[in-house]
Amino acid sequence: MSPKARDRARAKRRAEKRQAVFERRAAERARNRQVVAVVLAVLLVVGGLVGASYAVNRGKDTATPAAPAASSPSASPSPSATRTLPPKSLAAGKTFVATITTNRGPVTVQLDGTKAPQTVASFLQLAGDGYWANSRCHRLTTAGIFVLQCGDPTGTGNGNPGYGYGIENAPKDGKYPTGTLAMARTSDPNSNGGQFFIVYKDTQLPTDGGGYTIFGTVTSGLDIVKKTAAAGVQGGQTDGPPAQPISIQKVVVTEKKA
Fold first, then answer.
1. Is the pLDDT assigned to residue 164 strictly greater than 60?
2. Average pLDDT of 137-155?
3. In terms of C-beta density within 10 A (0-12 exposed, 13-18 middle, 19 or more buried), how is residue 50 classed?
4. In this structure, what are the phi and psi dihedrals at residue 28, rounded to the nearest 5 degrees?
5. What mean pLDDT comes out for the span 143-158?
6. Would the pLDDT of 57 be above 80?
7. Which residue among 3, 24, 107, 212 is buried most deeply as judged by most CB within 10 Å?
């Protein structure tokens, strides 16, 4: 082989080696890009799962509690604004008339401070404080028990005025006639607070735990409650928020003179 031929051969081999190196590096770069793409895809999937999990859990934390499913009027304990239970002497031996103004019209009730002095004293204080202003009645029952439950400013069934007290004037036979105004409570007999219920049809309630305080009677406006009940419960249930919303706008109480 001539010197020129050998030089051309060496030059060709060097060129082939450089091309091989170039192709190998190009393949490595392509492989690296694929790896990065796969890693990013995995991170996006994991991030999406974490985000979804956070959203679900956050939703659970902030979910509004459903109406109590108990077989009787109930109020769940919850911290609320600090208030002090007023003395019974504010209402003892007296009769009061309260006008509960709702978005459906006024409901008038007579309060018995002789039979339920502590309850009526509390009612007087909360009415004077505007505690129930613009609060919705959060629970209606339409099967077996026939009551409309109100008195929770949060509208959830979990609110209370920051104090509790015991049962007064509960019927031993568990009978609550149409038009009865009574207090809702938890299983704790000392958990009477701000939630009350109006009986729109004769109702028999359990006496276990002491029953429920009767502290007044509806004297006018019961037809408003009955119309609300006739519209039923949201979702076609028998216990829950009224399908026809009803809210307390204000409560005004005056003493009834003999």
1. yes
2. 97
3. exposed
4. -65, -40
5. 95
6. no
7. 212
Averaged pLDDT for residues 33-60: 37
Measured between alpha carbons, how far is 108 from 217 in angstroms, rounded to an integer? 9
pTM to 2 decimals? 0.72
| pLDDT tens digit sequence for 215-235 | 999 999 999 999 999 999 999
Spatial distance between the Cα atoms of 116 and 113, rounded to a whole number of angstroms: 5
* Rounded Cα–Cα distance for residues 140 and 238 (Å): 8
Q: To which H or E segment does residue 180 belong?
A: strand 180-183
Burial class (CB in 10 A: 0-12, 13-18, 19+), 175: middle
Gap between the Cα atoms of 140 and 228, Å rounded: 9
Please, which residues have CB within 8 angstroms of residue 129's CB and are 6 or more apart in sequence? 83
CA angle 237, 241, 243 (to 5 degrees): 75
